[in-house]
């Protein structure tokens, strides 16, 4: 499975009735995919090549190769091509594996047609990240360095500062100190991470991090050519590469300035705007009272460059002060990297209940932190070189602090929890410590309650309450008040952490509180190891449930006064008006 969206325009080309049936299946799933017709199938394929972002051909691979070979131009602009055989057994990523997205598209096609994706890109075949899949522009000797990584040769990773890169294989080792100016006379390979212009050589690939923000000020009606020419001249004179531009930034009154917006569009970066009051609050080296009188702030270009995308000027360094032409002004700031903390819910345990986004974040991380038994569930999806920080039960705070510390050091970190990481899991303790140095990504997961509810039937069809019976962190008198409130409110009640060897009386006490507000035949469901080996579902009532069958691997669901058993399944009616 892949969590990437398919390309915007997909051309489907088929020669036979079977191929058209398979094409119809894809067209039904993707409204932006359409069957391309022509006088011949070759004409249809050539038309699709010219007008689509991707082509899926239900033809023989050899035929597709012969037809498109004369059309090949540049892998960065050619459409992706996926070939599917007549029986839809295989979806072959033929062209544009990384650059065009054909590898991901082949996996999506295979999902829809129940086929097998065939991906021959070398890095994908051995589960290594391709340099062109890390999310940043990559330049230089990409093929040579990629080959060295694949062959297990030593590759030095050299970065101006630590950036939250995904896991890289063990033969890619960080160099000591800032050595971006080193040569490769020793015959070794390098992977540089820098926004600086680097002389090209045959053994160096350069990743361009999104570290630069160009602040732009302009007179009304400034030509795009003037803005573009000034920006490129400023970057070149400072030895900075345009591929590291994160965005252009300006005052909000310039948001509709065509010359600025066209420059951002041509560079493929967003245009970020700030109100004059925010700009005026930024300390800049070259304020201007003339500018203040005109736009309400003493600086546009310098202040906007420092604010960047998130308004944190204290993380930025002004590299180039304002430089002006007749109608345009440009300044450039470098923004420090922020660590990345993905808080990932793994779901209840079964691999097929783990979301594609969770898998993508695990493969995006360089460091994965979690409970040992949860890490065992996902080791097979981690990339080679991923550092794993494992700990046992009861070390929640230590895990949270470790994950935050790794992210604060500039790394890409995934902190995992079962179910949804925000429900009685790791998100809350981690985010208590995560400060503004860290970008946080939340990845929701299927909760234990949802997995249990699906096994029991539809007990959560109306209002319900989640309660943890663990008094390790919450005093029992607080828990008791909350159970009483749920009982009096007639909520379907779900108990997490219901009973352990050391806490064997709390569940009985909670059931007694609910029994005072429920009929004795109110259904109760106990689900143990939902979606995992040893899964067990037990139905009882408030009056008959034996708490001794419950443990910490269980979720207990107590119905409301409306919950009933229908064909052995718990159902809480929604109460739709049409039912009456």
From TrEMBL:
<dbReference type="InterPro" id="IPR006363">
    <property type="entry name" value="Cbl_synth_CobJ/CibH_dom"/>
</dbReference>
<feature type="domain" description="Cobalamin synthesis G N-terminal">
    <location>
        <begin position="44"/>
        <end position="124"/>
    </location>
</feature>
<dbReference type="InterPro" id="IPR002750">
    <property type="entry name" value="CobE/GbiG_C"/>
</dbReference>
<feature type="domain" description="CobE/GbiG C-terminal">
    <location>
        <begin position="212"/>
        <end position="333"/>
    </location>
</feature>
<comment type="pathway">
    <text>Cofactor biosynthesis; adenosylcobalamin biosynthesis.</text>
</comment>
<feature type="domain" description="Tetrapyrrole methylase">
    <location>
        <begin position="341"/>
        <end position="545"/>
    </location>
</feature>
<dbReference type="InterPro" id="IPR021744">
    <property type="entry name" value="CbiG_N"/>
</dbReference>
<dbReference type="InterPro" id="IPR035996">
    <property type="entry name" value="4pyrrol_Methylase_sf"/>
</dbReference>
<dbReference type="GO" id="GO:0032259">
    <property type="term" value="P:methylation"/>
</dbReference>
<dbReference type="InterPro" id="IPR021745">
    <property type="entry name" value="CbiG_mid"/>
</dbReference>
<dbReference type="InterPro" id="IPR036518">
    <property type="entry name" value="CobE/GbiG_C_sf"/>
</dbReference>
<keyword id="KW-0169">Cobalamin biosynthesis</keyword>
<keyword id="KW-0489">Methyltransferase</keyword>
<dbReference type="InterPro" id="IPR014776">
    <property type="entry name" value="4pyrrole_Mease_sub2"/>
</dbReference>
<dbReference type="GO" id="GO:0043779">
    <property type="term" value="F:cobalt-precorrin-5A acetaldehyde-lyase activity"/>
</dbReference>
<dbReference type="Pfam" id="PF11760">
    <property type="entry name" value="CbiG_N"/>
</dbReference>
<dbReference type="InterPro" id="IPR051810">
    <property type="entry name" value="Precorrin_MeTrfase"/>
</dbReference>
<dbReference type="InterPro" id="IPR000878">
    <property type="entry name" value="4pyrrol_Mease"/>
</dbReference>
<keyword id="KW-0378">Hydrolase</keyword>
<dbReference type="GO" id="GO:0030789">
    <property type="term" value="F:precorrin-3B C17-methyltransferase activity"/>
</dbReference>
<dbReference type="Pfam" id="PF11761">
    <property type="entry name" value="CbiG_mid"/>
</dbReference>
<dbReference type="Pfam" id="PF01890">
    <property type="entry name" value="CbiG_C"/>
</dbReference>
<feature type="domain" description="Cobalamin biosynthesis central region">
    <location>
        <begin position="133"/>
        <end position="209"/>
    </location>
</feature>
<dbReference type="Pfam" id="PF00590">
    <property type="entry name" value="TP_methylase"/>
</dbReference>
<keyword id="KW-0949">S-adenosyl-L-methionine</keyword>
<dbReference type="InterPro" id="IPR038029">
    <property type="entry name" value="GbiG_N_sf"/>
</dbReference>
<keyword id="KW-0808">Transferase</keyword>
<dbReference type="InterPro" id="IPR014777">
    <property type="entry name" value="4pyrrole_Mease_sub1"/>
</dbReference>
<protein>
    <submittedName>
        <fullName>Cobalt-precorrin 5A hydrolase/precorrin-3B C17-methyltransferase</fullName>
        <ecNumber>2.1.1.131</ecNumber>
        <ecNumber>3.7.1.12</ecNumber>
    </submittedName>
</protein>
